[in-house]
Amino acid sequence: MKKLKKVLLVVAGLIVLVIIGLALLAYALKPDYSGKKTLQGLQSEVQVYYDTFGIPHIYAETETDALRALGYVHAQDRLWQMELLRRVAKGRLSEVFGKDLVKTDKFFLSLGIDDHTTQTVATLDKQSEMAVLSQAYLDGVNSFIEDGPTPIEFYLTGLDKEPFAIEDIYNAVGYMAFSFAMAHKTDPLLTTMRDKLGEEYMRDLAIDSDTSTVWIKNYQKRDVDSLAGEITIGVSAVLDRLPIPQFIGSNSWVIAPEKTKSGKVILANDPHIGFAQPSVWYEAHVNTPTYEKYGYHLAGVPFPLLGHDRNLAYGLTMFENDDIDFYYEETNPSDSTQYKTADGWKNFEYVTKTIKVKDGEDVEFTYSKTHHGPVLNHIADQISVETPVTMSWIYTKEKNEVMDGLYGLSHAANIDEFKSALPKIHAPGLNVMYGDAEGNVAWWATAKLYQMPDSLSTKFILDGSSGKEEPLRFLDFSENPQAINPPWHYVYSANNQPDSIAGMLYPGYYLPENRAKRIVQLLDAKDDWDKESTSEMILDVTSSVNPGLITELIKLFDVTKLTNEQLVQVDSLENWNGHYSLNSTIPTLYHRCEYFMVKNTMEDELGTERLNQFLATHLFKRQIAWGAKMEQGKWWDNINTKDKVETRRDIVLKSFSDAWNSLVKDFGPDPTQWTWDKVHTLEHGHPIGQVESLRKYFNVGPFPVNGTREVINNMGFPYDSTGYYKVNSGPSTRRIIDFSDIENSISILPTGQSGNPFSKHYKDQAEMYIQGKFRKMMMNTEEIQEKAESVLIFTKAE
């Protein structure tokens, strides 16, 4: 017995030592928000006041000193995020995560972002204000890498820290330019569907804004069905493995003085981005005697993409324009190193890259290029068809001045200076929203737009050899969609179709009218907006479209064939106002029905795999309302039932029955138990949290969350056979700037300011975000200094 006690005492002692060791490690690795540090290159002292949510308020004598401090504090909270983001374009994710990321690395290397960055930096004016400030920021990042503690993720993955260079900034922005990626998911899939099913099926899809004007030209069919399909499969696979989120959509509106209670402008913005931990934005408030900006920064980028000061504010949504075209290339039958152009045969360009793989051999691969761009066949190893498909992307074709554009936006003093910076952002396509203290409101669609030949649909793979399906001209920026101080006294964007551009509806991957319709409905009805009512609006969870869709389809029901429980639920559906709340059961029943409607309508033609690909497109979101209202159409018939031609009514009734049975199976026969909170949840995933044993330490959540797809509080989720709606994208911040009380504007982040799991600010906003709460974006210097939780002072090295 005594021996056992001794053994237990030794074990207990070891446990205590391990706990102490872990506590000391956690303390050593957490960010340092107070004290004094020397910082190389400073001209004078910099004070960083951290508020209660860990947001730095940086006070410096010069902007270069302020940016140097910003780089340091940004890195100590987000170095791991910076590291992953800069690796995407360079094809260096396999170096961290192993062989499973090789295809992802191949794909991003083939896009040519890093090569385009190299060309850009080679001609960069290193003495320009943009470059000088960028370098100061990088010096701060590198000072932390040299002197600060190593984030835990580097230990867990075995990575060594490496200094950052200006190329990393451009590559981070390049990833943002690509991350929309809807063309890759849509165009090859539509081409496969057209070639397999025929034009009649295509006419019943909401491919363009006004399908009555769409002409799908005759097409000489070739042996490419499997190729287009495999490109979609391949792209989906590589993007699904990305350890960082993608940009999705967004809401923003700016209300003019005529419609606000105070007579001052109010700007609201909530960019929709894939949820992840850490979340996308890093907030920082920079102050010098000549410059001030409260901004939201992308990891590793010195200038804020969203920002405000006392004079003006700006926000972003994704334009969703089509800036990628795919081309079939024709190989010379007598010389496989050549491809056909309108001017004769040209040689393929060949590019060889090497990918380093963790715990494995280096992978060397070669891809080919034409004048259009890279040949994508290499992204999916299973492609056997030899017809090359190339990708023409405006981002890598045009001169890259995006960083100059971001510098210009963040340093503009008025609307004219702000507007002059916009043409430099050629990609990604952005809706830039603007408001200022003078009462101006504006919206510009920024992108390098181009005109294609009439009646040519860029939603399908084009003919690369004839020269007849190429851009005719670039549009001048003055032709881009825009509105400055319109007579209806507000501007907005919800990623929906803009009005005609240069006499045409510009092709894109626009989202359906749902959010836009609700935004306009609410803004038109009120002329006394204030910060509080705007904050209520940004949290709105009422669908403007779904109740009308139900009203249309419920007419097809035969109530005599429904059970009493079903009659009660059908009655509730019929009287539903489209509001999504956690304790409601109607949203659960509606979305089960919606999924089975699409499945029962399209799976027989597409098969399971292509149906799932279709469900991942914006086209599917537009198709829901469009397709359900079609009384006749090829899609309704189930091609697998030879003795019957199904109608819309048949599909609606079967889908309701399938949905009901699936809910009974999952939650039991009592419909009151089918509440939205059981199926609609949000978990912020960290790459390390994919390891189950580490999930609870790195991931944040899961939480039941209200809202849904395509309401203002847009909580997006993928549709699949599980019947559970795990939210994977939504507001990356909710932000309201009120020029009547600029020092008390409000915002929130989805988790927290820090990406360091040992920081108290790793997830301190997560519950507030779920509950629809906000916090102040502090700008008053006296208040900031008085209420600061801690102060970090940087001094210049002697």
TrEMBL record:
UniProt entry keywords in alphabetical sequence: Hydrolase, Membrane, Transmembrane, Transmembrane helix, Zymogen
Presence of keyword Hydrolase: yes
Residue stretches spanning the membrane: 7-29
CDD domains from the UniProt entry: Ntn_PGA_like
Transferase in keyword set: no
Record SUPFAM superfamilies: N-terminal nucleophile aminohydrolases (Ntn hydrolases) (SSF56235)
Family: Belongs to the peptidase S45 family.
Protein name, as recorded: Penicillin acylase family protein
Organism per entry: Flagellimonas marina
